Amino acid sequence: GEDLLNLRVMEIRRRIAVIRSKLAKISQAQELKRKRRSAEGFLEVALAGYTNSGKSTLHRVLTGSTVEVADELFTTLSTKASLLRGTDRRVILSDSVGFISNLPRSLLRAFNTTLMEIGNADVIVLVVDASDPDDEIARKVETCMDTFNEIGINGVPLICALNKIDLVDEEEIGRKTALVVDCVEEVAPISAMHGTNLESLLAAIERHLPSLARYRLVIPYGDDSMSLLSWVHDNARVLSEEFNSDSIEVMAHLSQEVAQRLFKMLPAGALTRME
Ligand SMILES: Nc1nc2c(ncn2[C@@H]2O[C@H](COP(=O)(O)OP(=O)(O)O)[C@@H](O)[C@H]2O)c(=O)[nH]1
Ligand SMILES: [Mg+2]
Protein backbone atom coordinates (compact mmCIF):
# COMPACT_ATOMS: atom_id res chain seq x y z
CA GLY A 1 0.00 0.00 0.00
CA GLU A 2 2.57 2.55 1.10
CA ASP A 3 4.98 1.65 -1.69
CA LEU A 4 2.24 2.18 -4.23
CA LEU A 5 1.45 5.58 -2.73
CA ASN A 6 5.13 6.57 -2.84
CA LEU A 7 5.25 5.51 -6.44
CA ARG A 8 2.24 7.69 -7.27
CA VAL A 9 3.77 10.66 -5.50
CA MET A 10 7.03 10.18 -7.38
CA GLU A 11 5.15 9.90 -10.65
CA ILE A 12 3.22 13.12 -9.98
CA ARG A 13 6.42 14.94 -9.02
CA ARG A 14 8.05 13.74 -12.20
CA ARG A 15 5.13 15.02 -14.26
CA ILE A 16 5.19 18.41 -12.56
CA ALA A 17 8.90 18.66 -13.35
CA VAL A 18 8.20 17.89 -17.00
CA ILE A 19 5.45 20.54 -17.17
CA ARG A 20 7.74 23.07 -15.46
CA SER A 21 10.53 22.53 -17.94
CA LYS A 22 8.09 22.73 -20.86
CA LEU A 23 6.81 26.07 -19.54
CA ALA A 24 10.34 27.35 -19.08
CA LYS A 25 11.24 26.44 -22.67
CA ILE A 26 8.07 28.08 -23.98
CA SER A 27 8.73 31.35 -22.18
CA GLN A 28 12.34 31.44 -23.36
CA ALA A 29 11.34 30.87 -26.96
CA GLN A 30 8.61 33.47 -26.69
CA GLU A 31 10.89 36.06 -25.20
CA LEU A 32 13.24 35.63 -28.16
CA LYS A 33 10.38 35.94 -30.63
CA ARG A 34 9.04 38.99 -28.83
CA LYS A 35 12.40 40.72 -28.96
CA ARG A 36 12.68 40.06 -32.66
CA ARG A 37 9.16 41.34 -33.36
CA SER A 38 9.73 44.42 -31.27
CA ALA A 39 12.97 45.08 -33.12
CA GLU A 40 11.03 44.82 -36.34
CA GLY A 41 8.68 47.52 -35.13
CA PHE A 42 5.60 45.47 -34.38
CA LEU A 43 3.16 46.43 -31.69
CA GLU A 44 1.76 43.66 -29.55
CA VAL A 45 -1.76 43.08 -28.33
CA ALA A 46 -2.15 40.14 -25.95
CA LEU A 47 -5.34 38.24 -25.22
CA ALA A 48 -5.81 37.21 -21.60
CA GLY A 49 -8.64 35.63 -19.66
CA TYR A 50 -9.94 32.38 -18.35
CA THR A 51 -9.89 29.18 -20.36
CA ASN A 52 -13.09 28.82 -22.38
CA SER A 53 -13.84 32.57 -22.44
CA GLY A 54 -13.30 32.58 -26.21
CA LYS A 55 -9.72 33.81 -26.63
CA SER A 56 -8.79 31.42 -29.42
CA THR A 57 -12.07 32.05 -31.24
CA LEU A 58 -11.47 35.81 -31.04
CA HIS A 59 -7.86 35.37 -32.12
CA ARG A 60 -9.00 33.41 -35.14
CA VAL A 61 -11.62 35.91 -36.30
CA LEU A 62 -9.32 38.88 -35.82
CA THR A 63 -6.32 37.37 -37.55
CA GLY A 64 -7.82 34.85 -39.91
CA SER A 65 -5.39 32.26 -38.57
CA THR A 66 -6.41 28.77 -37.61
CA VAL A 67 -5.58 28.45 -33.96
CA GLU A 68 -7.01 25.28 -32.57
CA VAL A 69 -10.15 25.82 -30.51
CA ALA A 70 -9.96 23.42 -27.62
CA ASP A 71 -10.38 23.39 -23.89
CA GLU A 72 -7.40 21.30 -22.94
CA LEU A 73 -4.59 22.75 -20.91
CA PHE A 74 -1.78 22.35 -23.37
CA THR A 75 -3.29 23.29 -26.68
CA THR A 76 -3.29 26.98 -25.81
CA LEU A 77 -0.14 26.83 -23.76
CA SER A 78 2.21 28.04 -26.40
CA THR A 79 1.01 31.50 -27.30
CA LYS A 80 0.17 31.95 -30.93
CA ALA A 81 0.84 35.21 -32.62
CA SER A 82 -0.18 36.57 -35.97
CA LEU A 83 -0.93 39.81 -37.69
CA LEU A 84 -4.10 41.58 -36.62
CA ARG A 85 -6.31 42.46 -39.55
CA GLY A 86 -8.58 45.49 -39.82
CA THR A 87 -6.04 48.07 -38.68
CA ASP A 88 -3.23 49.67 -40.65
CA ARG A 89 -0.82 49.44 -37.73
CA ARG A 90 1.70 46.61 -37.64
CA VAL A 91 0.19 44.70 -34.78
CA ILE A 92 0.75 41.19 -33.50
CA LEU A 93 -2.10 39.59 -31.61
CA SER A 94 -1.00 36.86 -29.26
CA ASP A 95 -3.33 34.24 -27.86
CA SER A 96 -1.98 33.86 -24.34
CA VAL A 97 -2.24 31.12 -21.80
CA GLY A 98 -5.67 31.00 -20.19
CA PHE A 99 -6.28 31.40 -16.50
CA ILE A 100 -7.45 28.21 -14.92
CA SER A 101 -9.43 27.97 -11.69
CA ASN A 102 -7.91 26.06 -8.79
CA LEU A 103 -4.50 25.58 -10.33
CA PRO A 104 -2.20 23.62 -7.99
CA ARG A 105 0.14 25.97 -6.13
CA SER A 106 3.18 24.15 -7.41
CA LEU A 107 2.20 25.02 -10.98
CA LEU A 108 1.01 28.54 -10.29
CA ARG A 109 4.49 30.01 -10.30
CA ALA A 110 5.43 28.33 -13.56
CA PHE A 111 2.22 29.66 -15.11
CA ASN A 112 2.89 33.14 -13.87
CA THR A 113 6.27 33.10 -15.56
CA THR A 114 4.57 32.25 -18.81
CA LEU A 115 1.89 34.87 -18.22
CA MET A 116 4.52 37.50 -17.49
CA GLU A 117 5.20 37.95 -21.16
CA ILE A 118 1.86 39.70 -21.57
CA GLY A 119 3.41 42.46 -19.49
CA ASN A 120 5.42 43.32 -22.60
CA ALA A 121 2.28 43.88 -24.63
CA ASP A 122 1.20 47.36 -25.72
CA VAL A 123 -2.44 46.56 -24.95
CA ILE A 124 -3.99 43.64 -23.06
CA VAL A 125 -7.46 42.45 -24.07
CA LEU A 126 -9.12 40.64 -21.17
CA VAL A 127 -11.69 38.26 -22.60
CA VAL A 128 -14.64 37.65 -20.27
CA ASP A 129 -17.43 35.13 -20.83
CA ALA A 130 -20.67 37.13 -20.55
CA SER A 131 -22.68 33.95 -20.10
CA ASP A 132 -21.01 33.26 -16.73
CA PRO A 133 -23.12 34.20 -13.66
CA ASP A 134 -22.43 37.61 -12.10
CA ASP A 135 -20.53 36.29 -9.09
CA GLU A 136 -18.33 34.11 -11.27
CA ILE A 137 -17.47 37.04 -13.56
CA ALA A 138 -16.61 39.13 -10.52
CA ARG A 139 -14.45 36.36 -9.05
CA LYS A 140 -12.63 35.64 -12.32
CA VAL A 141 -11.93 39.30 -13.08
CA GLU A 142 -10.67 39.76 -9.55
CA THR A 143 -8.32 36.77 -9.93
CA CYS A 144 -7.03 38.17 -13.23
CA MET A 145 -6.38 41.57 -11.62
CA ASP A 146 -4.65 39.96 -8.64
CA THR A 147 -2.46 37.92 -10.96
CA PHE A 148 -1.57 40.97 -13.08
CA ASN A 149 -0.56 42.76 -9.89
CA GLU A 150 1.35 39.75 -8.59
CA ILE A 151 3.44 39.40 -11.72
CA GLY A 152 4.01 43.12 -11.88
CA ILE A 153 1.97 44.11 -14.90
CA ASN A 154 1.16 47.75 -14.63
CA GLY A 155 0.88 50.61 -17.04
CA VAL A 156 -0.34 48.35 -19.83
CA PRO A 157 -3.79 49.53 -20.99
CA LEU A 158 -6.41 46.89 -20.29
CA ILE A 159 -9.51 46.50 -22.47
CA CYS A 160 -12.29 44.07 -21.69
CA ALA A 161 -13.87 42.08 -24.50
CA LEU A 162 -17.18 41.01 -22.97
CA ASN A 163 -17.64 37.94 -25.17
CA LYS A 164 -20.57 35.64 -26.02
CA ILE A 165 -23.17 38.42 -25.92
CA ASP A 166 -25.24 36.24 -28.25
CA LEU A 167 -26.08 34.19 -25.15
CA VAL A 168 -27.37 37.06 -22.99
CA ASP A 169 -29.92 39.89 -23.33
CA GLU A 170 -29.40 43.67 -23.33
CA GLU A 171 -30.14 44.07 -19.65
CA GLU A 172 -27.59 41.39 -18.76
CA ILE A 173 -24.95 42.97 -21.01
CA GLY A 174 -25.43 46.25 -19.15
CA ARG A 175 -25.20 44.59 -15.76
CA LYS A 176 -22.11 42.57 -16.63
CA THR A 177 -20.42 45.57 -18.22
CA ALA A 178 -20.94 47.40 -14.93
CA LEU A 179 -19.22 44.53 -13.09
CA VAL A 180 -15.94 44.93 -14.97
CA VAL A 181 -15.94 48.57 -16.06
CA ASP A 182 -13.97 49.84 -13.06
CA CYS A 183 -11.09 47.42 -13.65
CA VAL A 184 -10.42 48.33 -17.29
CA GLU A 185 -10.06 51.30 -19.65
CA GLU A 186 -12.97 50.25 -21.86
CA VAL A 187 -15.48 47.44 -22.25
CA ALA A 188 -16.43 46.20 -25.73
CA PRO A 189 -19.38 43.76 -25.76
CA ILE A 190 -18.76 41.27 -28.58
CA SER A 191 -19.52 37.87 -29.94
CA ALA A 192 -16.34 36.37 -31.32
CA MET A 193 -18.27 33.43 -32.70
CA HIS A 194 -20.78 35.56 -34.62
CA GLY A 195 -18.38 38.39 -35.40
CA THR A 196 -20.59 40.91 -33.57
CA ASN A 197 -19.24 44.37 -32.70
CA LEU A 198 -15.62 43.50 -33.46
CA GLU A 199 -15.11 46.94 -35.03
CA SER A 200 -15.71 48.61 -31.68
CA LEU A 201 -13.19 46.28 -30.03
CA LEU A 202 -10.61 47.09 -32.72
CA ALA A 203 -11.32 50.80 -32.32
CA ALA A 204 -10.81 50.51 -28.56
CA ILE A 205 -7.52 48.67 -29.12
CA GLU A 206 -6.39 51.30 -31.61
CA ARG A 207 -7.24 54.12 -29.18
CA HIS A 208 -4.89 52.62 -26.59
CA LEU A 209 -1.97 51.68 -28.81
CA PRO A 210 1.00 54.04 -28.54
CA SER A 211 0.21 57.07 -30.65
CA LEU A 212 1.87 57.90 -33.93
CA ALA A 213 3.15 61.31 -34.84
CA ARG A 214 4.17 62.81 -38.19
CA TYR A 215 7.89 63.36 -38.72
CA ARG A 216 10.15 64.78 -41.41
CA LEU A 217 13.41 62.87 -41.91
CA VAL A 218 16.40 64.02 -43.89
CA ILE A 219 18.68 61.11 -44.74
CA PRO A 220 21.98 62.24 -46.21
CA TYR A 221 23.39 60.12 -49.03
CA GLY A 222 26.04 57.72 -47.84
CA ASP A 223 26.87 54.05 -47.46
CA ASP A 224 23.99 53.49 -45.05
CA SER A 225 21.30 55.66 -46.60
CA MET A 226 19.51 52.88 -48.48
CA SER A 227 19.50 50.44 -45.57
CA LEU A 228 18.30 53.24 -43.31
CA LEU A 229 15.52 54.09 -45.75
CA SER A 230 14.46 50.48 -45.89
CA TRP A 231 14.50 50.31 -42.09
CA VAL A 232 12.18 53.31 -42.05
CA HIS A 233 9.84 51.56 -44.48
CA ASP A 234 9.80 48.49 -42.26
CA ASN A 235 9.20 50.38 -39.06
CA ALA A 236 7.06 53.35 -39.96
CA ARG A 237 4.23 54.38 -42.20
CA VAL A 238 5.94 56.34 -44.96
CA LEU A 239 3.75 59.11 -46.38
CA SER A 240 6.12 60.45 -49.01
CA GLU A 241 9.75 60.38 -50.04
CA GLU A 242 11.77 62.66 -52.24
CA PHE A 243 15.25 62.02 -53.61
CA ASN A 244 16.95 65.40 -53.58
CA SER A 245 20.48 66.14 -54.79
CA ASP A 246 22.15 65.73 -51.39
CA SER A 247 19.62 63.82 -49.29
CA ILE A 248 16.43 61.82 -49.18
CA GLU A 249 13.53 63.63 -47.56
CA VAL A 250 10.92 61.38 -45.99
CA MET A 251 7.61 62.20 -44.34
CA ALA A 252 6.42 59.38 -42.09
CA HIS A 253 4.21 58.47 -39.16
CA LEU A 254 6.42 57.16 -36.37
CA SER A 255 5.69 55.63 -33.01
CA GLN A 256 7.49 57.20 -30.09
CA GLU A 257 9.76 54.19 -29.84
CA VAL A 258 10.75 54.25 -33.52
CA ALA A 259 11.27 58.02 -33.37
CA GLN A 260 13.66 57.57 -30.45
CA ARG A 261 15.66 54.95 -32.31
CA LEU A 262 15.85 57.07 -35.47
CA PHE A 263 16.94 60.03 -33.40
CA LYS A 264 20.02 58.01 -32.42
CA MET A 265 20.67 56.75 -35.95
CA LEU A 266 20.39 60.04 -37.83
CA PRO A 267 22.68 63.05 -37.72
CA ALA A 268 21.62 65.93 -35.47
CA GLY A 269 18.73 67.94 -36.82
CA ALA A 270 17.73 65.29 -39.37
CA LEU A 271 14.54 64.33 -37.55
CA THR A 272 11.78 66.90 -37.05
CA ARG A 273 8.42 66.36 -35.49
CA MET A 274 5.63 68.05 -37.47
CA GLU A 275 2.52 69.16 -35.64
N1 LIG B 1 -22.06 31.32 -27.95
C1 LIG B 1 -20.79 31.68 -28.12
N2 LIG B 1 -19.80 30.79 -27.95
C2 LIG B 1 -18.53 31.20 -28.12
C3 LIG B 1 -18.22 32.53 -28.51
N3 LIG B 1 -16.87 32.64 -28.58
C4 LIG B 1 -16.38 31.42 -28.28
N4 LIG B 1 -17.37 30.54 -28.01
C5 LIG B 1 -17.24 29.12 -27.65
O1 LIG B 1 -16.65 29.02 -26.37
C6 LIG B 1 -15.81 27.86 -26.29
C7 LIG B 1 -14.41 28.25 -25.86
O2 LIG B 1 -13.81 29.03 -26.87
P1 LIG B 1 -12.23 29.14 -27.04
O3 LIG B 1 -11.99 30.15 -28.10
O4 LIG B 1 -11.61 27.82 -27.18
O5 LIG B 1 -11.84 29.74 -25.60
P2 LIG B 1 -10.37 29.90 -24.93
O6 LIG B 1 -10.18 28.75 -24.03
O7 LIG B 1 -10.46 31.19 -24.16
O8 LIG B 1 -9.36 29.98 -26.03
C8 LIG B 1 -15.85 27.22 -27.67
O9 LIG B 1 -16.80 26.18 -27.66
C9 LIG B 1 -16.30 28.36 -28.58
O10 LIG B 1 -16.98 27.90 -29.71
C10 LIG B 1 -19.30 33.46 -28.70
O11 LIG B 1 -19.14 34.64 -29.04
N5 LIG B 1 -20.55 32.97 -28.49
MG1 LIG C 1 -7.64 28.88 -26.34
Q: What would you say about this model in short?
A:
By secondary structure, this protein is α/β, with parallel strands linked by helices.
Protein model, in words:
- This protein is α/β, with parallel strands linked by helices.
- It has eight helices and ten strands.
- Strands 2-3-1-4-5-6 form a six-stranded mixed beta sheet, sandwiched between helices.
- β2 and β3 (91-95) form a beta hairpin.
- α1 runs parallel beside α3 (105-115) and α4 (134-150) runs parallel beside α5.
- Bound molecules: guanosine-5'-diphosphate (GDP) and magnesium ion.
Please, what is the average pLDDT? 83
The coarse silhouette is globular
Class of the largest domain, according to the CATH hierarchy? Alpha Beta
Following the backbone from N to C, one meets helices and strands in this order, namely HEHEEHEHEHEHEHEEHE
Strand content: 15-25%
- Which ligands does the model contain, each kind named once? guanosine-5'-diphosphate, magnesium ion
| SS elements, strand count | 10
Structure characteristics:
2 domains, 8 helices, six-stranded mixed beta sheet, Alpha-Beta Plaits, 275 residues, single chain, Rossmann fold, 22% strand, alpha/beta, binds magnesium ion, binds guanosine-5'-diphosphate
